[in-house]
Amino acid sequence: MSPNPSAITEIDCERSLRLRGDGSQPLPDEILTSTVPLVLRGLVADWPLVRAARASAHEAEAYLRRFHRDATVLATHAVPEAGGRIFYNDDLSGFNFSAQMVRFDQVLEALRAHLDDAAPPTFYVGSTTVDTCLPGLRAENDLNFGGREPLASIWIGNRTRIPAHYDVPDNLACVAAGRRRFTLFPPEQLKNLYVGPLDFTPAGQSVSLVDLERPDLERFPLFAEALRHAQSAELGPGDALFIPSMWWHHVEGLEPFNILINYWWRQSPAWMDTPFNTLMLALMTLRDLPPAQRAAWKEIFRHYVFDSDGGEAAHIPPAARSVLAPLDDTGARMLRAQILKRLNR
């Protein structure tokens, strides 16, 4: 991969932020509202799970087993020839992996059985709610988000490569075992990432079709420009990475046994739908309009959405502003009902 990505800005949590590595102190707002990625070295260095992982993969596995009851998880399996890459098949008609619901402890057993393989099959469990899968784990391994209530998920597997994708929420990813390499691209690099299908994806999010390990610049020439804007960091047990909303990130598990716990939250009211719904509707209603009409709608969206400062309805009496008034949960439910009625006509 060339040119080499630049380093993500790093913060030593103990020295710079005076944060203990047990996660008990509230995280500063300047971290949780950052618009650029930040490596937080040692943020969870004193989690019991991290301490177990630093001793060995076997101790980390034993620690996890303390919290497992009978939960099942969606486990991904790929043959050794996939090289850990969770991706499509050759013609994008399907995927290069299989997935099925299994007991969580069966995943641990499969990982243990292949710890010493030079070219193991891929085993991977992604985005699984911690409290459901391992009840009680967060009582000993958690972070203090103040008034925020993020969704905490666990990711576990051996050597894996997850293609570049974005998430709508902000993301704080904590490496609890093994090592992970993150390569990030800012949102404006979308046009250079050669993104695959929007509605047929390996794991729910659209992904870049470029293999970051061996980028084919003849097939994907614009990716060279994306690489010039890439940022990267390698994280070990106890380190964390803040990934701002909408930043594309490629994630690699670098060891035979890797555990990551991440937290997702949105800086928006709970009643707001995902903007992805707007994109899908726009593909249906705007993309294929004649150019002049598309330009007119672009101006409407600019006026009412992207450049909105609250003044676009100032000339309308407050009681008559309807959907142009500030929205709340009740207003959002009413608007959603109107939209569904229009779609179902």
UniProtKB/TrEMBL annotation:
Residues 123-280 form the JmjC domain. Gene3D superfamilies: Jelly Rolls (2.60.120.10). InterPro entries: Cupin_8, JmjC_dom, RmlC-like_jellyroll. It comes from the Bacteria. PANTHER family: HYPOXIA-INDUCIBLE FACTOR 1 ALPHA INHIBITOR-RELATED, HYPOXIA-INDUCIBLE FACTOR 1-ALPHA INHIBITOR. It comes from Duganella aceris. This is Cupin-like domain-containing protein.
